[in-house]
Amino acid sequence: MSSGLVVALSGGVGGAKLALGLSRVLPPEELLIVANTGDDFEHLGLSICPDIDTLTYVLAGLDNPVTGWGRRDETWSFMETITALGGEDWFRLGDRDLALHVERTKRLGAGQSLSQITGDVCRQLGVGPRVLPMSDDRVRTRVRSDSGWIDFQDYFVRQQCRPVVQELAFTGAADARPQPDVMAALSGGNVRAVVICPSNPFISIEPILAVPGMRAAIEKCGAPVVAVSPIIGGRAIKGPTAKMMQELGLAVSSATVAERYGALLDGYVVDAADSGDIRTKVHVAPTLMTTLEEREALARTVLDFADSLT
Ligand code: FO1
């Protein structure tokens, strides 16, 4: 078996599933997960980082299996109370989850970086692999629809992805510095593979690639770049990926996702139903990850495929 560092790009629930699979088949020091922070926002005075937290909870075995986000065995006294007070209750923060947002907000206010805080939280919760934000600088995904520009969580949660997406923007990305340890890892000459998890390309992976220097560092790292399609049989497994594709005038297909990544890709893992008309090297495998065994199996498949491209 090959060794070296596997760098995984992840956002959302689909990304975290494969990240978990990778964490189960690799020693912790051989996996670095780069999290999207475009979904981050400030809410009720707190700094919320959904994609980092989803990864943290999933890798710690603390994730909520029903929602995919937040914590398992959650209680909702805070939410019930804020509703009773007539406060803002469209974004649901569980009691246990709340502690993480309070702690992070306090530490960010004291000048600590998001990377440092994420590392400490992962250590405290027993997460083995490194999880790092794409940048310690603020990047915010915004969505343009008929009624103008809105914040990502306003679109995603408050309006339940109802607005028709016309354009996406990653505010702050142009001035954001890529996370230094991610850049050092990519230029260290020891990368086995870069894995683009089956996340939504528009809102989870493209914000990561929009951080200046990130895409070039991935291209230059010398390792195969392999993506896993988030589309199975022309449908998105979860979330608004298919709806967004239609609204942006794109065909709902695995090929469309591969085209978004373009020359970055050396290989692409797709489900049997989706292998047609893709210009990069394709490996067909079951990509639906319902069970832990399926997550591990897909992780092994992706790594074997990447090794075969070296
Ligand atoms: N997603 C929802 O659909 N509704 C929520 O109320 C909600 C709360 C929430 C709280 C903490 C957290 O870390 C994530 C949360 N999410 C919620 C998920 C979040 O919107 C993510 O950005 C999406 O899953 C996209 O990755």
Contiguous low-pLDDT stretches (5 residues minimum) are none
Shape: globular
CATH architecture grouping = 3-Layer(aba) Sandwich
| Helix count from the secondary structure assignment | 12
Strand order of the largest sheet: 5-2-1-9-10-13-14
Global structural class: alpha/beta
Number of strands: 14
Strand content: 15-25%
Q: What does this molecule look like?
A:
This protein has a single domain, classed as CofD-like domains (Rossmann fold, 3-Layer(aba) Sandwich). It is built from twelve helices and 14 strands. It has a seven-stranded parallel β-sheet with strand order 5-2-1-9-10-13-14, with helices on both faces. Strands 7-6-8 form a three-stranded antiparallel β-sheet. The protein has a two-stranded antiparallel sheet with strand order 3-4. The chain starts with a strand and ends with a helix. The structure holds ligand FO1. Ligand FO1 binds next to helix 1, helix 2 and helix 6.
Strand and helix layout:
Layout: E1 5-10, H1 12-25, E2 31-35, E3 41-43, E4 46-48, H2 50-60, H3 77-84, H4 95-109, H5 114-124, E5 130-133, E6 140-145, E7 148-151, H6 152-158, E8 167-171, H7 180-186, E9 191-196, H8 201-209, H9 214-220, E10 225-228, E11 231-232, E12 235-236, H10 241-247, H11 254-261, E13 267-270, E14 281-284, H12 292-309
Parallel strand pairs: 1-2, 1-9, 2-5, 9-10, 10-13, 13-14
Antiparallel strand pairs: 3-4, 6-7, 6-8, 11-12
The structure holds ligand FO1.
Brief summary of the model shown:
The chain has helices at 12-25, 50-60, 77-84, 95-109, 114-124, 152-158, 180-186, 201-209, 214-220, 241-247, 254-261, 292-309; strands at 5-10, 31-35, 41-43, 46-48, 130-133, 140-145, 148-151, 167-171, 191-196, 225-228, 231-232, 235-236, 267-270, 281-284. It is α/β, with parallel strands linked by helices and 310 residues long.
